[in-house]
Amino acid sequence: MHFHIITLFPDMFDSYLNESILGKAIKNKKIKVTFVNPRKFVTGKYKKVWPDGNISLQVDDRPYGGGPGMVMRAEPIIKAVEFTRASIIKKHPKSSIFLEVQPPKPARGWTSKKILTVNFVPSAEKFDTKIAKNFSQKYTDIIMICGRYEGIDARVDKILKTKKLSIGDYVLTGGEIPAMILVDSISRQIEGVLGNFNSREEERVSSSEIYTRPEILIHNKKKYKVPPVLLSGHQKNIEDWKNKIK
Ligand code: SAH
Question: What pLDDT sits at residue 108?
Fold first, then answer.
């Protein structure tokens, strides 16, 4: 799985992607994460060369109809996504760009890519594990557009045929954390990313209450014990307990 992230702030991803399970998944080539900055695609009057030689590349503009905040302009984002799609297709000419349709099964020996483009919108359909699993099986490349400020010019979705997703009922300052959430949750659905593939919660009886050594934890002279059923070695009773706790 190759994640292509369209963001003004690629450095935000560094520490999270370099550590632990995702860091290992990237090193072991189970996943790949690359970035394209829409600022590089600013042209025309939005690219200004100042007398001192400084260049300003303006990615946003004021909203039509008034209101606070700035809107990310469509053009640099569309160009960044088209550049990303073209660079995938150049290497794999038989690739297809999908919205939600089921991609055809590739013929033997094909190295076709199945590309999905996601745009983050707080009020859109909510992302969940089912979607993560589905994406991990359906697509080889996921392009994610990270909005900032008041959001992105709405024409981007129509032109690029994006899949609009929200990560929850709250408004963040940008799409970078939502992109990170998709990378994380989709990656753990890919075989070889988790140490033990079957440790994915949805494949077993898991519980939110878990314990490890010591059996009795003493804090401020009080004893905190592990529930005895977990020490019983009786798998059926343990699973019943986990189902009850959930
Ligand atoms: N004015 C917009 C919100 C903009 S928030 C509105 O009312 O819908 C700025 C950016 O942050 C968005 O473009 C999106 O990329 C991201 N974002 C904020 N909250 C989000 C959420 N709950 N889920 C997914 N993306 C979110």
Answer: 53
